[in-house]
Amino acid sequence: MHDAAQRLVGRHDFSTFRAAECQANSPEKTLDAIEVTRAGDEIVIRTHARSFLHTQVRSMVGSLQRVGDGSWTAQDLKAALEARDRAACGPLAPPYGLYLSRVDY
To answer: Which InterPro entries is this protein grouped with (predicted)?
Structure first.
């Protein structure tokens, strides 16, 4: 999952991972870093960016879950990103377990 997630790092059009009701002026965002680690039975995903689109993180996590369960490859994740189409996205990860841990200015 960590290796696949690295395909999301950088400046991209994240339309695939954007909610229909997103009010951002542009779907282009820069994902500075994403780390996927295991802590016992938990998988911890940390993202770093200046800003995110509405449901972007939950959408990326849901898509990464497909990589983790073997139904997608890293290339499938990259293809979903490049599709720029919400229909190419994996399932939306549930909101529980998602925490905003820090904001830097």
So the answer is: PsdUridine_synth_cat_dom_sf, PsdUridine_synth_TruA, PsdUridine_synth_TruA_a/b_dom, PsdUridine_synth_TruA_C
Residue of 34, 18, 37 whose CA lies nearest to 26 = 18
Give long-range contacts, CB 8 A cutoff, 24+ apart: 63-70.
Answer: 63/17, 63/89, 63/90, 64/1, 64/4, 64/5, 64/36, 64/90, 65/90, 65/91, 65/93, 66/90, 66/91, 67/1, 67/4, 68/1, 68/43
pTM above 0.90, yes or no: yes
Q: pLDDT (tens digit, 9 = 90+) per residue, 4-41?
A: 999 999 999 999 999 999 999 999 999 999 999 998 99
Residue 77, amino acid = L
Assess if residue 65 is contained within a domain: yes
Helix (H, G, I), strand (E, B) or coil at 32: strand
Domain containing 7 equals: 2-88
Contact 93, 62 (CB under 8 A): yes
